[in-house]
Amino acid sequence: MALAGAGLTSGCVRQLESTVSRDERTPFSLSIKTVPADTDATATRLARYLATRLQTVGVAATVVPMSREELLRDVLSNHDFDIYVSRLLLRRDPDFLRPLLHSRYGPGRGWQNPFGYGDLSLDSLLERQRTETGSVRAATLAEIQRRVVEAQPFTPVAAPRPAQATRPVRVDWPDGVGIHSLTGYLGARAVTTTATASRTESAVTSSSTPAPTSTSATTSTSATTSTPATTTDEPAPENELRMTIGDSRPTENLNPLSTPFRSDGTLLDLVYDSLGRPVYDRMRPWMAASWEWADGDETTLSVRLRDDLAWHDGEPITAADVAFTFRFISDTALGSLDQPVPSPRYRGRASLVESVDAASDREVTIRFGDVSEPAAARALTIPVLPAHVWEPFARPTSVSWLDGGTVTEALVRNNLEPVGSGPLRVTGTTARESVSMEPFEDHFLADDALDGRLSRFDGGFSFDSLRFDVVPSDGAAVELLATDAVDATANSLSADSRAAAADEPGISVRTSRPEWCYHVGYNHRRPPFMNPRFRRAVARLVDREFLVDSVFDGETEPASSPLVATTYVPAGDAWDEAVSELEFVGDSGTGTLDAERARSVFEDAGYAYSGDGDLLIQE
């Protein structure tokens, strides 16, 4: 009996110690960073939705709103976050997943693995897919997606269809492309009507936005230091295409290498050309007159530039500028430091290339590594930069907002007077108000002798000028459109604003295929986010069907894969089973969470709860 009593006492002590140890552990708390509601109401609603569900399962979650610039700096440069909710720009070629998830890019900045995720087996698959084509590549990409679903390095939520509003009586937009795109602007044509004659008066009386004046380019590390522009009462040009944008960052920074200031590169696509462009879903020579792979060598591409190419400042473009660009993208310090300082924005694409040499003034030889032709094409979309403008900015510098690491002036300069070679050149910026452009008369599109699919752009941009005015909200954009103060919205409208625009006479709403995916990002550098079981438990709090109907008003599709906008999303039982294992823990489609089941999912992942129902941090 003594022995039995001693054993019972020992067991009770162990149980008591376990209970005390559990209750002394710290309840888990986290922050969800995102942008404010007036910047992106959808992102804010998603963040609040997730915070509420986390609170229901015992996690002290708070939403931390911040400007787009601050969010991207924290996530992409300083890696200072627990969870964030934002947009992920989707690419047509799935090779964008390689820099996004490969462990090699974890220590870097930009959209090169901002999560700090590492999986050597996934690394191998990501490297392999860029060497493959056809069904072989599709099979590898299917396995990559299955592993991404299984490990949840980040959680895709939904890919909305961008919706822009326009006045068809004013502008005829090309079919099959989005309004706010390179091909959209280059294919737009003015519609001549009796109302056209009154445009100048309408622009003056209906719009309160002042016309811009040029601001000076600067090497300052803060875009907000640009010289304020003065206002003028001069009317807008009669043949001006007037657009609204909801993002003021392009008015403060036009540096194509800047990550915090870039979420949409359309404006800079108009200013900076590349060797090739994806036009109507096919990569076509752009600055290049032609290219061809060397006989018997599928890793060497010979590129011939178009004749008489020129920069916006009148200097001629040569093959040396192309070679400089690829070297500069790979190391913006140009070898002056012990370690290269690559451009975070284009590092993944530049990594496809081994060398670029100027064979002559018009001929470039590009040597790729073990890369298939579809993947190699991504490198041809890097914007070509003028060496005489950018080389002086290869100096190292420091910025107050960067926690450690080295940057160069090239990565942080404002570049408010950009010298590109694109079909439009910038004529003026007013900080937080507007950007104005005009056609570049020496651009090759200005000719009327283009061949093939580019012939639809004969003559170049058809308007005398293009102006982007910053609006505080989607509702404000619709109001300006309704009063004929603008011709279309570049910013994609929310569901409510889309409905309001559709109710206005003379306004048409156009949607296009998904360009970005809302997602939940996890910082794998911090516990417990390096644990895939924890991430999977969080992912199961997301009811995509409910969010599609309630947040996106049905104008989207649920996204379980980051390749949702491509044809590579797999089908079949294996894929369905992988997705079903992350099904919402509750009544799907209603948003009603089964709190008890959800808590058990976290417990199955190895986490414990306090007596008060708080999820505890594992020591």
From TrEMBL:
Q: Transcription regulation: present as a keyword of the record?
A: no
Gene3D superfamilies named among the record's database cross-references: Dipeptide-binding Protein, Domain 3, Periplasmic binding protein-like II
- Quick check: keyword Signal in the entry? yes
Indicate the transmembrane segments per the record: none
Q: Which is one GO molecular function term here?
A: peptide transmembrane transporter activity
A biological process (GO) annotation for this entry? peptide transport
Q: In its UniProt entry, what is this protein called?
A: Extracellular solute-binding protein family 5
High-level lineage: Archaea, Methanobacteriati, Methanobacteriota, Stenosarchaea group, Halobacteria
